[in-house]
Design goal:
single chain, Lyase 2-enoyl-coa Hydratase, Chain  A, domain 2, six-stranded mixed beta sheet, binds acetoacetyl-coenzyme A
């Protein structure tokens, strides 16, 4: 891999987009390498992922403008699909993904962060969808996910005006969950990931699926999705051990990491 690094730290996998000369902009090769990296994650030994960008200036400064500049209509659509397919894989990935946004998150950078489950950022982070200034629409899910995350009115304002926002405003509108000094960001992401990794892994995966799938349908269907995923947790060793520890009032055991059990 030229542009993606992957490090395993216990139960947590850290994916770093590493193309600092272009502020980690997403060209086709980066997208392909990211896709292959996700395919290679060991789901039996990993419980959470962190996605970040190399360096202290940029998370991802967008899709690669040089590569896009000469595309035809058909090629533009295909490029959009290429990004969308990888981002959807990330969004529906069986494990929770935390975006540690360490600087510019513009265009495709804002969009990839929105495909993650949780976003936290450094105090120098800048978010935005500047595409209309380049004569295009957001093309890797921005028109869809931003509206779902911050509401249609705020999303339309950001997208129509192409105005970038700073970390504090991203926090205020609910685009990020928390803002940290740059040097504390990765530790905070790792701490959050470790907190997730301590929980019963089948239950965490089922929560992700229940929330994601439920948001796509009406409430009557959504609660049925929840019921099935709730039921799916029963008879697992995690459920037996988790509830058993509570009932036995065994605080030591309660704090123990329940080992991953295949269904
Ligand atoms: N694509 C390709 N190269 C990029 C890039 C991008 N999106 N963003 C930055 N770079 C490159 C620059 O061309 C420059 O390369 P050279 O050194 O070879 O000239 C290098 O990264 C450093 O960038 P700057 O010199 O511009 O750095 P700066 O600190 O002056 O500015 C910035 C930083 C404000 C982020 C500026 O680089 C910028 O505006 N980048 C473009 C942001 C953007 O418009 N993103 C949206 C892209 S469209 C998109 O993403 C579509 C979609 O939805 C799929």
């Amino acid at each position: 891999m030229e542009f993606i690094t992957y490090e395993q730290d216990g139960f947590v996998g850290v994916i770093t987009i590493n193309r600092p000369k272009a502020l980690n902009a997403l060209n086709s090769q980066v997208l392909e390498e990211l896709d292959a990296t996700l395919d290679a994650v060991d789901l039996n030994t990993t419980r959470a992922l962190i996605l970040t960008g190399a360096g202290d200036k940029s998370f991802v400064a967008g899709a690669d403008i040089g590569e896009m500049s000469t595309l035809t209509k058909a090629e533009g659509e295909a490029f959009g699909k290429k990004g969308n397919d990888v981002f959807r894989k990330l969004e529906t990935f069986p494990l929770p993904v935390i975006a540690a946004v360490n600087g510019f998150a513009l265009g495709g950078g804002c969009e990839i962060s929105m495909s993650c489950d949780i976003r936290i950022c450094s105090d120098n982070a800048i978010f935005g969808q500047p595409e209309v200034g380049l004569g295009i629409t957001p093309g890797f899910g921005g028109t869809q996910r931003l509206a779902r995350l911050v509401g249609a009115g705020m999303a339309k304002q950001m997208i129509y005006t192409a105005r970038n926002i700073k970390a504090d405003e991203a926090y205020r509108i609910g685009l990020v969950n928390a803002v940290y000094p740059q040097e504390e960001l990765m530790d905070a992401a790792k701490k959050m990931a470790a907190g997730i990794a301590m929980q019963a892994p089948i239950a965490v995966r089922n929560c992700k699926k229940a929330i994601n799938d439920g948001l796509d349908v009406d409430m009557d269907q959504a609660i049925v999705i929840e019921e099935k995923l709730f039921g799916d947790c029963f008879e697992t060793e995690d459920q037996r051990a988790g509830m058993g520890n509570f009932l036995e009032k065994d605080k030591e055991k309660k704090l123990k990491v329940v080992p991953f059990q295949n269904k």
